[in-house]
Each structure stands twice: as C-alpha cells, then as structure tokens.
Amino acid sequence: MPAAAPHFLQRRAVEFHETDGAGLVHFTNIFRWMEGAELAYLQELDIPVLACESAKSSGWPRVAVSAKFVAPLRFGDQVETRLWVGKIGKSSVTYRLEIWRVNGRGAPVLSATGIITAVYVTRLKGKLGSAPIPAAIKKKLK
Q: pTM score, two decimals?
C-alpha cells in the first residue's frame, strides 16, 4: 500500500447488477470503478477528459490496465476507491489504485489493486497521435 495519502477518494455501494450468480462483484466492475475514479479525479482538477474543438481534439485513451484481486466484494458493501498519481511522463500518466471494503464494521479490507496508464493524444487534421502533456495539465496532476 502506498505510504502517502491518496490524491483522490471515491465512495460507493456495490449495486446488485454488479454481482454475479454467486453474489460476488464481477471482476469487470473493478475496471469500471478504477476508470470512474480516474475520470472523477480529472474532472475535479478541471482537466478535460475529452476536448473536441473544430480543428483539434484531445483525450486520454488507456494503453495499459491491470488489476489484482485480493478479497471478494458483495452486494451492499461500501467501497472506497483510492487513487494516486504515479509516474507522469512526457505524454503519459500512470495511476495506482486500491479498492477497499469500508462497511464500518471493523478495519477496512483491501479488495483489489490496479494500475492505469493513459496517454494524452490530440487529433490534428484528422490524424490522432500522442502528444506532450501540456504544462498546465502536468502542474495540476502534480
């Protein structure tokens, strides 16, 4: 677990439709929650997730995503997704995430860890490609 406080926290309850036939959270939802925390963090910093202008657009497609599942989650569990900004490269940013069960009964339980690497891209004259992260955005991410 990272020693520093997370850069962003997001809380939610596990919904019934997110569980499988055994009553456990289906693994795909962990990826959705990780992406949801990333997008909410960017929005909190007022960093456009997708910018579409007439001549130029930009976005943050993911180039790598991974997760490790540690403990099960069930319908009704309270979940906290914790996000840390890891490495900021010339055109990419890597986030480290942890998903905790925080039901208020005893200590929180680590349920999953994950990593997302996103690349800043722009589209000029119809051509999409990676681009250096603008200095103003880098400053906000740090």
A: 0.90
